[in-house]
Amino acid sequence: MSSKKDTHKPAKMAAASGKEPGGFTAEERAAMKERARELKASKAGGESALLAKIAEMPEPDRSMALRLHAVVKASAPALEPKTWYGMPAYAKDGKVVCFFTPASKFKTRYATFGFNDSANLDEGAMWPTAFALKGLTPAEEERIAALVRRAVS
Fold first, then answer.
1. Cα-atom radius of gyration of the chain, to the nearest Å?
2. Residue 70 belongs to domain with CATH number
3. CA-based nearest residue to 105, from 121, 118, 87
4. Position 1 in a domain
5. Nearest to 100 by CA among 146, 132, 78, 123
6. pLDDT digits (tens, 9 = 90+) for 22-69
């Protein structure tokens, strides 16, 4: 007889948490499938694919994503618009620098605008890499524009 405890989650517990026995929620699995489709797609339609994804978003995510798209393009025209895991993203030399996660994507109470490790935002030993967004005022837009400019510097 083995002295090891069975660490397998019963199906009822997994279902109650919203996760399948494999550990990912339906939304997470959909994002991974979306990313696989993106990798197969051609680079030529980056901005049109991004705008199509934004058009599919419910409000207020759609309006916020459109404003962010305008802010990022104006702040860092060299960034390449694309989709990344089904979300709007902006890349430099093929690496995603920043991205928008709509609240509706993972059914959260706020959207996020985040940066990957390729962004030049280092400040000492600790700095923020994602920002919660419940709305966009000119003040937030200017802050995001400054962060995007810095990220690609």
1. 18
2. 3.90.1150.200
3. 87
4. no
5. 132
6. 789 999 999 998 888 777 665 557 899 999 999 999 999 999 999 999
